[in-house]
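Data availability (excerpt). The following record was deposited with the supplementary files.
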Amino acid sequence: MSSGRGSGSDDVVDFFLGDWNITDRRQNQRIRELQEGLDQANQRVYHERSRLRSELSQVRGSLEKRLDAISASFDAFVELSDIRATLAMFDGTAMARHRTRQILSGQRPDELRLDDTSAYWLVPAALGLHALTGGDLGTARVRFAEAAERDPLRAEVFSILATAVAAPEHAPALAGPVLPKLLPALPHEVDRWQRALWLLAADGLLGEDAREELRLRTDTALREQGLPQGDDSTRRIPRVELKPERAPVNLSGTGEIQQRLLAAEQLSALRERLEHTLVTPSAPGADDAGRRRTAPARFAAETLRLLIDEGSSEEAPLIERAAQLRAVVEGSGSASADSGRPRWDARVGTLSQLLHADATDTGAPADRRAFALSFESARTLSAAESLAHRAQQPWRGDVVITEQGQRVPITRDGPVGDALADAEAQIARRYMRGGSEHRHITLSAAAIGVVLVAVGLSVGSPVLWIIGIAAFGCSGWGVYKDSSGRQQTMEFARHQQERMRTSVDQGVAYLGALLDKTEADGARADRDLDAIRRLLADG
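Predicted structure:
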């Protein structure tokens, strides 16, 4: 009975202790889950804080840049306002520029009155342009001369450029006495205004006398200055990428032939470029006078605008600074306040570079290209003759086929002398010099067989006799293997010799085709050179 009661009380205790253990485990599990959730939340907060810190630094940097830009823009605006207030005092000179632009744009007033208290050269020049566009050439000459007394260079450049833009029919008459003074000699480094006058004369807009005058001055300048460093006839040669047919075998010594082919291709490319540049179809009904009355180059009109916008001597630095500050304001502070604007007297290139650009510009007027080519023709013809000479130069080199370590010189008729036979003999010796691979086994087995058979016969032992016969069999097997291997080696050597003969035949055929092509290209080079000579003579 006591045993039964003790067992029942233990069950009751276990029951209550078990429930307590289950509750404790659940609480521990919940605590762990809460701890993991807290760790994850801390990690998320850390990452979010890092991201916000990074974004804040970017925003701070962006705000600082924006504030700097706004500050620079505001400073520029304040300075620009001060400069504008100062420029407002030059109302007479500003009106002269405004009226000049109006006349050039076709909005000519019937009467032009300008304040002439500042001795600004543009005031009489604008009055001369007004008279010129009204058909009064005499008054225009007087006004332009008055402007030249104040500033000879600017006034005379203005008179030619403005006449070419607004009244091109009077340009030859006005340019005749002025152009020799403006361009007494062409410098090595050409200014923008000199280039503008050059283009007008080369295009024929200033008349044939001005064109011929420019030709004489250019020729004199080229003779006196010579060619700049690195400016030789090779610059006239077009770049051509020659992709020769791949040789079927390993050939060396064809580089000279490839150079002849390349020279012929370059000569053809030079002829095509000259044809494209010089042979320009004329418009239906176009005559010489019509081509002379074409619109002036945009370059000349832009140079004229820069000259007008420069301002008087007192205004010029203020106008320059105002343009810089305006760029800063319009760029929201991003532009530099020290950046300059184009000038009418800036350097634009060397004499030789500009001539070459005109000669190769397919969009330029035909008169301008022909004018430039009259100076470029000598160097272009020299380059063409050099290419033709290289394309027709006789080939005296050696071509060698390298196959299986053997070098066989060839010509278009076949291998040179006994070179192929020597190569085949060398191949045969290479494969036959090894001898028998089973010689030692054959001799040893035969010797052992003789000894064993002799001993077996003398002592009457059939075992030794049988072993001796087996040794003779092994020796026979070695003889058979040697014979079979020798036949295979000879067959492989013959195969290699046939491969050598095939490679030589392919190399000879390829060389013959290559030489035939060079001969055909050489004949074409003669025709291309004659065509280039005709083009340059007609141009």
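Summary of structural features: The first helix runs from residue 2 to 87.
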